[in-house]
Amino acid sequence: MNDDAIALSGPLYDFVVSTILLLTTHNGVYSSPCHQQPGTHPLLTQVDISEGIPKQVSVHFCKQCERYLQPPGTWMQCAFESRELLALCLKKLKGSMNKVRLIDAGFLWTEPHSKRIKTKLTIQKEVMNGAILQQVFVVEFVVLSQMCDDCHRVEAKDFWKAVVQVRQKTQHKKTFYYLEQLLLKHKLHQTALNIKEIHDGLDFYYSSKQHAQKMVDFLQCTVPCRSKTSQRLISHDIHSNTFNYKSTFSIEIVPVCKDNVVCLSPRLAQSLGNFGQVCVCVRVTSTIHLIDPNTLQIAEVDGNTYWRNPFNGLCSPRQLEEFLVMDIDVIRDQKLGSGAGVRSNKHVLAEVWVQKTSEMDTGQQYHCRTFLGHLLNIGDLVLGYDFANSNVNDEYLNKMNPHHVPDVVLIKKSYDRTRRVKRRNWKLQEMARDKEGMDTDDERQYQDFLEDLEEDEALRKNINIYKDTSKIPVESDTDDDGAPRISLAEMLEEMSLNDATGGDGADMMTD
């Protein structure tokens, strides 16, 4: 031993080490960064800084949705051996590690099916005489299966917290078809747990009341309607004073659809600018768009105005009859009375003489005014309602002067439906829903809605229309009967997973 070196032994050695050196232990074996001492240091036998920290902890995992429970009631989606899972495990030890300092933490490999998660923790703590002791140990987390509340409600068939019941008391579903496309465009159907279609409406089921309320707010801004809210108590915890309710939102859409003939009350007709009582509904969006076939006046009726002065459709779409235009005379420069409202610039007023195609052998003709003067020519077919030979029971119509009630109200020009379906090269998306008690004429009503989109450019501006690549339309001059079409510029390309990955996606995979 050199003379400059000082040999330390006994109590003096223990004092220097405890005050100067940083002691580390790996599985109980003492080591020093500047001096190796065989055996175990006395401090390690006297002090265990991991004491009080549990070496085996349980975590709860839901197999249905593959989420972990973060107490007290939050379920988190964590990948295996991810940072999120490590943070969740450390939170389990947070209460027992408030007296030590966490230096490092990581996962140890375990068999994926062993339901065990092992973590290696490195901690430090100040012990006697100001020494800092560092220790590495392993904590094992046992994965226990527990079904979360959401999955439990699904399995118990009691998974919804709120339902939105949308109803419309009409015989045609044009408004629902339009509403469906708006929901698809704004992707509001994605938050619904289930969508059920019944005879006179749709039911949307949600897991939370907030999602249902968002749906109700959207409907009130989209279609003229009114709503009612009710709730039913499911359970009550007297200890925490918490209540579990199921909420029901009832939405009633105005019972008026496109192409309906309605009769307004005298008070409402006067408030709209001396509007004619018998008028036609040309569109239903957030308001009801009406046109007077005698004067071309147009007006909009919102939901609040409708419920104060309600009116119903006089005829159903099944009562539409086909007429042949025998003569037509366009009316120009008609003067309106004082207080009249706005006139339509898209329509032309005309007087027409028509004859039913079912009464061609009788010679019976009808005279009426129409707003379709820009579309009709002699020899064209047109659909309309025959009021002269029908029995209509309506409160306001029965009180009108019979001379002011038209014999025929024309609705729209008639085209060959077979040709229109054959050359239609576009399609719409549909919501996935359960159907119950459907009528047999649903396909006819859906085709009517598609034809309305082709004829009304303003209606299809709020709808996503996609190319139908499965259909190749046959272009022929002999098949062109003047029916309106949707231009290629208005159609969207329908995206799919195969399109995004170039085939089946195998070429884009890398090692």
Automatic annotation (TrEMBL):
Belongs to the NMD3 family. GO terms for cellular component: cytoplasm; nucleus. GO terms for molecular function: ribosomal large subunit binding. The keyword Nucleus applies. Keywords: Cytoplasm, Nucleus, Protein transport, Transport. GO terms for biological process: protein transport; ribosomal large subunit export from nucleus. The lineage of its organism: Eukaryota, Metazoa, Chordata, Craniata, Vertebrata. Residues 256-302 form the 60S ribosomal export protein NMD3 SH3 domain. This is 60S ribosomal export protein NMD3. Pfam families: NMD3, NMD_SH3, OB_NMD3. Residues 320-413 form the 60S ribosomal export protein NMD3 OB-fold domain. Residues 44-253 form the Nmd3 N-terminal domain. It is found in: Cytoplasm; Nucleus. Acts as an adapter for the XPO1/CRM1-mediated export of the 60S ribosomal subunit.
